[in-house]
């Protein structure tokens, strides 16, 4: 055999290898056969004939009469001129169809089927073999039948050629390619049949030199066929037969060794003690076992060299995967003959296979080898040669392959003496933060093994001999060095399976935190974060965001473990938490983490267990002290969330908590009131302003969790805001806190009004306060202070929504509270979009700190844009106000594309035609702005790109989008041919037709003709030759000729889109197109739909309890049609970005949005989900890039990476791409 250094170089050397490279070289049989000095023990006429397969690349003829023939099978699929006749069975035994039906159904015991066939084979070997051959042919999906004459007179190549001509060309499917559960059932049945067949013959017919050599020769020929069905099925059967033969060969070798030892023992006795009969019997057994082993070796060598060596690199991935899977079994079952470099090289080469299932089988086969300690010595050369490739596979694009590669490296690390170097382990460590949970868990097991190995090697134990404390110290060091401090929850989740006992050791962690020595400041923060993440993992028993594998309900066992963990957490931390809060009360970051711990407690234990009640007072006292100490927004928000939980009425101790925090509010209110008079008189010094601002900031945080209306701070806040605005003495923190306090007061007042039904006078007073607050916020929108301006915009969006007509529809008595925004406020809101949201942020430096600021700024802008869009969708603003959003769809698609697209979708549900007119109005506004810039030859490329993208948002069902598209064209045509005022150029807007032509491809043929007539009627006769008019008319007539193909296609959709034609279009009055609309003013309708109160935009405390899901919004009857998905082409957007549009002046922003009579709509809409991913687009994108089934075109997987998941607690965040 060749040495390992040459064997493992390349797969191209395989075909050039000589016969000496065979794993089985039965020299004795070959010499006897070639020399002809001794005849074979049994007649092998048929076996010799069928063994000389035309597809076998090796010639070891036992008889000089054997000749090598060129392969002829599989070269033609043309039907034969003569039909292959059916086999005439000599007996009434089992038929090939009976065997096939039993295998295909999987309902018949294979032992019974094999026994029936064996009875038939005993009566006639030829007939029994013929049945098996026809079963193989039928299993391949071939209609042909092999009869007795063909078997006796034709070679294998000729038989296969005849069968190829009889193959069914009607379908590419065959039994092993049948989709669904039938494939798994048939494959399992076929393998089971072969297994039972060989084991039933292992002591008899395996050695008759007729049955199995004949079958293997036929399978070898079929495996070399160009017909995939023949090649696939025969390779699978040959590999399974080979596996069973290897198992028999191992048993024969063991039996031979045992018999040889018995012979040696008997022969070693003294002559008078020997039993001659016993010696002769053992000698005969040895000769027979040697012949049997030689026979098995001959068949296995023929199969390996004739089938495996050629098919392990077949074009079909399933064939390659089968070869690798069975090779792994051979290596494990018979290491004496197979576990050498000559066979291991195939596994190493195929690790580079392009198809992931093949790579997966290779890695799993290697796992079976590295699990056996006795094999490690033989794997040294293979490990050194292919370890680099295995390391690169941890980033395989198939997560399953990556998971198994990590598991394999863990076995190498544990089994080999050298293991992996530290830089090699560095390839695996970052995977604990991978978004794929299986891969992260495998990497966590590798990391945990490494940590424990280091702990054992260094014998690191603290003074008390606590090895778990040492484990945490090593883990903390790793966590700090990885520099992924925002992803602690993912590290804990990765280690949870293998190190769950250590991570649940709350006593050790809290002891390390409470001790005054041992950990430095950074290590304390890391351990505290790990501990809080472990508490969340144990209490919720769910993976973190980004690692969920679908909705999986917890089993009863998991629920029981969860309850036990939660009880242990509560029992341990209730007395310890006040101590931790006391120690870290001055550290904002650490105390914010600790304040989240009670959210995972079983809080009822405070009242149910008597000895724990005293700790509740300590906790409440600590929370009040923390509120008094800190002004950091994160700490105050954590306190507010905990206050809201403790004051919940579902707890019996809520009254005690409410009393404690009410006293805190009293103190803060008194402190603020002490400085109020000085603030109003503008006589307060810096300390007074700071103290008042901090007190108001704390009050605002608590107001988000508990009702502040009893302290009557609204008038004071409003008066303070007016005073500061009039005196232009703008203190950012003071005014922002005052705005939040006033807004929360109005929100709680609305909630009380819904529950208590106050008198009419009180409602009017509340509405007046809302009006005053909105005017103050409107003024703040013009200030130069960013924090005040942003806070005012977000609070305005929330309050306008909370006091809208939609919010009181179910409460007629509260109609008095409805507050609609004035025209000036609408203009201010629209100007805010143009001035502060749709602006570029390229000035920020893209270093680590700058990137973090950019992401935070983008998230704030998205939140503000979502608030404005909700005002449009829920009817606070007219649909025409959406033009301020739609016209930025193309330029800012990367940042806000999902929000704008969702807004378009919801507006179409409200009023499809009106929404289409808003789209057209957006383009008209951009066109008018470009004309006012005074360009002699304006470039409409960017506007046309926007029009093209907006056109793609219309329904792919052209019948359903017909009215909307016609409305766009009618409005656009009227705008293009509007008569200009005196003194201006005639028809200045005619170039708008170029932009309008981007919507023509979705028009139905009959609408194209009518619109062409409408253009001719609207435009002057001389205008028909203008370039823009001619371009638009050509776009209408581009595909009109294609619609005249037949009666079935006359009213069809655009053929280029492949859209099925609706049989009839449903019409309704609601969707009719108004032909009287002129000018830029657009008919708009306010939303009068039954809407739930949407999620607020500002920093109101989010409730943890989930609201029941509402019904999905349904379109109007006129919009019903086929459920084809909307054409998704946004991901292919690569056109030039639009030029920055100048912001509309504040005084004239409302001129483009004149109100029109409102149309009553009754649409049942759910809350607007403006920050959700379009997961279906990702699924389509992922499924588009399938791999080619050619091993020769392999590409390295090193480029694939696993991105770290986002740490924000939102579902399916659209900002994931910004964190990549």
UniProtKB/TrEMBL annotation:
<feature type="domain" description="SCD">
    <location>
        <begin position="308"/>
        <end position="393"/>
    </location>
</feature>
<dbReference type="GO" id="GO:0007059">
    <property type="term" value="P:chromosome segregation"/>
</dbReference>
<protein>
    <recommendedName>
        <fullName>Cohesin subunit SA</fullName>
    </recommendedName>
</protein>
<dbReference type="Pfam" id="PF21581">
    <property type="entry name" value="SCD"/>
</dbReference>
<dbReference type="InterPro" id="IPR013721">
    <property type="entry name" value="STAG"/>
</dbReference>
<dbReference type="GO" id="GO:0000785">
    <property type="term" value="C:chromatin"/>
</dbReference>
<dbReference type="GO" id="GO:0000775">
    <property type="term" value="C:chromosome, centromeric region"/>
</dbReference>
<feature type="region of interest" description="Disordered">
    <location>
        <begin position="1"/>
        <end position="91"/>
    </location>
</feature>
<keyword id="KW-0159">Chromosome partition</keyword>
<dbReference type="GO" id="GO:0005634">
    <property type="term" value="C:nucleus"/>
</dbReference>
<feature type="region of interest" description="Disordered">
    <location>
        <begin position="1040"/>
        <end position="1074"/>
    </location>
</feature>
<feature type="region of interest" description="Disordered">
    <location>
        <begin position="1104"/>
        <end position="1220"/>
    </location>
</feature>
<dbReference type="GO" id="GO:0008278">
    <property type="term" value="C:cohesin complex"/>
</dbReference>
<dbReference type="GO" id="GO:0003682">
    <property type="term" value="F:chromatin binding"/>
</dbReference>
<feature type="coiled-coil region">
    <location>
        <begin position="272"/>
        <end position="299"/>
    </location>
</feature>
<dbReference type="InterPro" id="IPR056396">
    <property type="entry name" value="HEAT_SCC3-SA"/>
</dbReference>
<comment type="subunit">
    <text>Part of the cohesin complex which is composed of a heterodimer between a SMC1 protein (SMC1A or SMC1B) and SMC3, which are attached via their hinge domain, and RAD21 which link them at their heads, and one STAG protein.</text>
</comment>
<feature type="compositionally biased region" description="Polar residues">
    <location>
        <begin position="1147"/>
        <end position="1156"/>
    </location>
</feature>
<comment type="similarity">
    <text>Belongs to the SCC3 family.</text>
</comment>
<dbReference type="InterPro" id="IPR016024">
    <property type="entry name" value="ARM-type_fold"/>
</dbReference>
<dbReference type="InterPro" id="IPR039662">
    <property type="entry name" value="Cohesin_Scc3/SA"/>
</dbReference>
<dbReference type="Pfam" id="PF08514">
    <property type="entry name" value="STAG"/>
</dbReference>
<feature type="compositionally biased region" description="Basic and acidic residues">
    <location>
        <begin position="1176"/>
        <end position="1188"/>
    </location>
</feature>
<dbReference type="InterPro" id="IPR020839">
    <property type="entry name" value="SCD"/>
</dbReference>
<feature type="compositionally biased region" description="Low complexity">
    <location>
        <begin position="51"/>
        <end position="76"/>
    </location>
</feature>
<dbReference type="GO" id="GO:0007062">
    <property type="term" value="P:sister chromatid cohesion"/>
</dbReference>
<keyword id="KW-0158">Chromosome</keyword>
<dbReference type="Pfam" id="PF24571">
    <property type="entry name" value="HEAT_SCC3-SA"/>
</dbReference>
<keyword id="KW-0132">Cell division</keyword>
<comment type="function">
    <text>Component of cohesin complex, a complex required for the cohesion of sister chromatids after DNA replication. The cohesin complex apparently forms a large proteinaceous ring within which sister chromatids can be trapped. At anaphase, the complex is cleaved and dissociates from chromatin, allowing sister chromatids to segregate.</text>
</comment>
<keyword id="KW-0539">Nucleus</keyword>
<feature type="compositionally biased region" description="Polar residues">
    <location>
        <begin position="1201"/>
        <end position="1213"/>
    </location>
</feature>
<dbReference type="GO" id="GO:0051301">
    <property type="term" value="P:cell division"/>
</dbReference>
<keyword id="KW-0131">Cell cycle</keyword>
<feature type="compositionally biased region" description="Polar residues">
    <location>
        <begin position="82"/>
        <end position="91"/>
    </location>
</feature>
<keyword id="KW-0175">Coiled coil</keyword>
